[in-house]
């Protein structure tokens, strides 16, 4: 994220209409989530996040693994609960 102390330089870029629409949708989605991120901030974040080598650093990979682990644990718990409900329903039908 940019801070107030960062020296920003104005640049003009040509982007397609579909890119403008996508950027507008992204801005609206962050506003709906209560983040209020401007289009300019989105572009700066995208530039900062872009890695031309395509590699991610270990911190990003570990964060992703942690997120996947958490989601899998939640899915397993929900599946076990659903299995119990189905088993109980089958038992009642028998």
Explain this structure.
With 94 residues, the chain is an all-alpha fold. It has two domains: 1-6 and 14-50; 56-94. The protein has three helices and no strands. The longest helix has 36 residues, at 58-93. The mean pLDDT is 84.
How would you sum up the major sheet? none
Q: Give the termini distance in whole angstroms.
A: 60 Å
Low-confidence stretches: none
Strand content: under 5%
Number of domains: 2
* Overall body shape: elongated
Mean pLDDT: 84
- Report the radius of gyration as a whole number of Å: 22 Å
Looking at how many chains there are and whether they match, the oligomeric state comes to single chain
What's the β-strand tally? 0
Q: Helical amount among residues, as a percent range?
A: 55-70%
The structural class is: mainly alpha
Question: How many helix segments?
Answer: 3
- What string gives the helices and strands in order? HHH
